[in-house]
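Give me the fold.
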Amino acid sequence: MSVRSRIVPILLGFFISFAPGKGEAAPQGISTEQRLVSVMADTKAREAASAAGKRAAFLCVHCHGEDGNSPLAHVPNLAGQNPVYLLHQIDKFGDGRRKDEFMSGLVKVLKPEDRFNMAVYYATQSVRPTPGHDVRLREAGGRHFARACAGCHGASARGTKDVARLAGQQPVYLRIALEGYRQGSGTRSDMRMTGVAKNLTNHEVAALAAYLSALP
């Protein structure tokens, strides 16, 4: 028996035992978040998951763009988001914690492995900032951000596994999201964001959107 013929069954046994297939749970004892962090740290695993995620995301291209940079002003960019944060948001649409009839319906038909791979795919894409021409507005936004937002979103606005990346986000989408929190529309629920947003003026909302959308 050749070396190759001996190795192939071993590898197949490894992947059957440890690599969840579509719709299956992560290996016993390993949380989905732990698996996601592990995949992101492994070049081959990350590339494989990203390729599968790109295929699974074909239904998302019209709104979120082929690479996670949305062609629609009111739709968020997904490129460059933390993969754990992305996966949590996908799951929230699936179980109703985030409310959007279209998104919820779409997410519900995705298998767990599709959701996982899509999170990896979008996280590995580069966001394209959209700087505006009003320098003074951006500067004002930077001051508001440092005062009210940097504590959670980070000094560079790149977020964490629990908090959204805002750097490079669509300016129109940012304004809509902030106004939604400020008005308590119910489409999203976050006590911290509601507490911050309700104290923002219209000018501060516009300034924050201008500043954040220009960040790399």
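The chain is about 60% helix and 0% strand.
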